[in-house]
Amino acid sequence: MEKSAVLMIIDMQQGMSWPQAGERNNPNAEHEIAELLAHWRSIHAPIVHVRHLSTEPESLFWPDQDGALFQDAFQPLADEKVIEKSVPDAFIYSDLEEWLRSENLHTLLVVGVSTNNSVESTVRSAGNLGFKTYVVGSACFAFEKEDFFGQSRSADEVHAMSLANLHGEYATVITQDEAFALLPKEHTSLSD
Predict the structure, then answer these.
(1) Any idea where the Isochorismatase-like domain is (predicted)?
(2) Total domains in the fold of the chain
């Protein structure tokens, strides 16, 4: 029997909040992620924190510097799973799939940054691997970006297109309220 939906928080690192990261959308995303995290913790439901450690020395996420650290509000607790990655997809070169299956966890609720990069890449793999996957659109954010033809796209446009890429094929995009409804009011811990 499945234990619960897993809250997967992707790349909520200090560098994502720095001006160098670029113009972004969804300024309330951190608040929504924090609310979900507090609720998952209150009922001892499973949580996975994903952290990007770049292989590029000039990156904001180069290991052992402040940009790569988790933001204070999203520091993992000792009993929460941490996945470190050097590519956008949290399933590649990690034990994420093996851990989820060993814990009999088949449903993922994904939040974080950036919608069109690590979130989209990880969610595509999750869907392809057969996990029931949800994305809370308002608990993710993206940065402005030029498209392939050189036209500037706002962070809202990038975010919306990425959610459209995922919805219905790899995942179901849901609201914050729908995310809370995925969990019962009381839950037993993974050790039960």
Answers:
(1) 6-177
(2) 1
